[in-house]
Amino acid sequence: MVLKFVVTVIVFAQILAPIAEAAQGRAVFYDPPYTKSACYGNQYETMVTGVRNNLWQGSRACGRRYRVRCIGPTYNFPRACTGRSVIVKVVDLCREPCNGDLNLSRDAFRVIANTDAGNVRVEYTP
Fold it and tell me: How many other CB atoms are there within 10 angstroms of residue 90's CB atom?
C-alpha cells in the first residue's frame, strides 16, 4: 500500500514538474538569414531564438533549449495560435529594444503562431 502511494506521488511529480517550471512572456520573430549569432558566430540551424537580457545571463543561455507554446495574442488578433509547440535553441541575445522575451526565428514562430500576429503571448519551459 505504501509502495503504491510512493509510486503514485513520483508519477504525479514527473507529470507536474514541467508545468511548475513554465514561464510566460512574449515572443516575436526575425527573418532569415539566421547565420550570425552571439553564441556561435555562423550557425545554420533554423529552430532558434534570441533571448532578452534577463534570460541571456551573460551568454550562459547559449545552447539552452526551450519548448515554446503560444497561449494567445498580445494584441487583438483572431486565431493567432496554431495549438502546436516548438523546441528552439538559444543562439543570440535580443538586444534592446527587444519587443519580446523570445525573438524566435520566423521558421520557429510560424510553427506556434500566425506570423501576421507578429507578437504573441507564450509559455516556455527549459
Answer: 24
Contact 111, 82 (CB under 8 A): yes
The answer regarding whether domain 21-125 maps to CATH 3.40.570.10 reads no
CA 29 to chain centroid, in Å, comes to 11
Over its length of 126 residues, how does the chain's per-residue pLDDT go in tens digits?
A: 654 544 454 544 454 444 558 999 999 999 988 778 999 988 889 999 999 999 999 999 999 999 999 999 999 999 999 999 999 999 999 988 889 999 999 999 999 999 999 999 999 999
Question: How do the domains of the chain map onto residue ranges?
Answer: 21-125
> What is the pTM (predicted TM-score) of this model?
0.81
3-state secondary structure of 71: strand
Transcribe 31-82 into DSSP letters.
Answer: PSP--EETTTEE---SSEEEE-HHHHTTTTTTT-EEEEEEEEESSS-TT-B-
